[in-house]
Inverse folding.
C-alpha cells in the first residue's frame, strides 16, 4: 500500500511517500517560505519522481502537532482535503511520537518541541524499536523541569527535538551525565517517521476520516491568550 506522510508542524517540514514500510521518497525544506507555498508542490514533485498518481494513495499520515499553530492548521487542512478527494483515511501522529520512533528497545526518551522562552512541548516515552510507548505527557515543560526529571530517573535518557537543542546547555548542567546528547539530525521531525508511526496507528485501529482529524495544540496561541479567549 502506498501512503503519504505530511509534516508542517515546525519550520522544517516536508512530505514522504512509503510503499508499505519502504521509503520511496522524502522531501524536506527548511526555508523562509510558508508551508502553504511549498507543501503541495513538494508532494507533487515527490509523486511525479516516484511515478505515482493520486489514485495510488491508500493512507495519509499527518503530523497534527504540537508546534506552529499556523503550520499545524495548514497540514491538517491539506490532509483533510486529500482524504476527502481520494476517499482514504488518515493516521493522526504527534511530532513527539515521530521524534522517538525507532529508538532502541527498552531505552527511555524525552521528545521536546521548542515552545520558546525556555519551554518545550514535551513527552516521555519508553522506546520499543518502533512506535514509542507514552510514559508521561504531553505537556509544556521548562528545560529545568525536564533536566531534573532525567536526573531523578537515574537512567540514561535520550532527548530529541529542536527543544532539546535549543536548551542543550541547561539540560547538560542538570542531568548528571544521564542525557544522551542529540545530534542535529535528532532535532528534526522526519516525514518518513511520521509515515511509519501512521502505519503503526493503522495496525492499532487508530485511523480517522477527514471529519475526525483535529489539530493538537496542547496550549492556547499567544493571540488567544492576549485577547482573553474572546477571539
Amino acid at each position: 500500500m502506498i501512503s503519504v506522510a505530511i509534516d508542517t508542524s515546525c519550520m522544517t517540514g516536508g512530505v514522504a511517500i512509503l510503499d508499505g514500510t519502504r521509503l520511496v521518497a522524502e522531501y524536506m525544506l527548511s526555508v523562509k517560505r510558508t508551508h502553504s507555498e511549498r507543501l503541495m508542490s513538494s508532494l507533487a514533485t515527490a509523486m511525479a519522481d516516484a511515478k505515482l498518481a493520486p489514485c495510488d494513495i491508500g493512507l495519509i499520515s499527518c503530523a497534527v502537532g504540537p508546534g506552529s499553530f499556523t503550520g499545524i492548521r495548514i497540514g491538517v487542512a491539506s490532509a483533510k482535503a486529500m482524504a476527502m478527494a481520494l476517499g482514504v483515511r488518515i493516521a493522526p501522529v504527534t511530532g513527539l511520537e515521530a521524534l522517538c520512533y525507532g529508538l532502541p528497545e527498552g531505552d527511555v526518551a524525552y521528545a521536546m518541541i521548542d515552545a520558546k522562552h525556555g519551554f518545550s512541548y514535551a513527552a516521555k516515552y519508553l522506546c520499543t524499536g518502533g512506535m514509542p510507548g507514552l510514559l508521561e505527557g504531553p505537556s509544556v515543560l521548562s528545560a529545568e523541569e525536564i533536566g531534573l526529571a532525567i536526573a531523578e530517573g537515574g537512567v540514561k535518557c535520550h532527548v530529541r527535538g529542536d527543544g532539546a537543542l535549543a536548551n542543550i546547555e541547561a539540560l547538560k548542567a542538570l542531568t548528571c551525565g544521564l542525557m544522551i546528547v542529540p545530534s542535529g539530525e535528532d532535532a528534526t521531525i522526519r516525514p518518513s517517521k511520521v509515515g511509519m508511526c501512521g502505519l503503526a496507528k493503522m495496525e492499532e485501529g487508530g485511523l480517522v476520516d477527514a471529519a475526525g482529524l483535529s489539530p493538537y495544540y496542547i496550549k492556547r496561541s499567544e493571540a488567544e491568550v492576549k485577547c482573553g479567549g474572546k477571539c
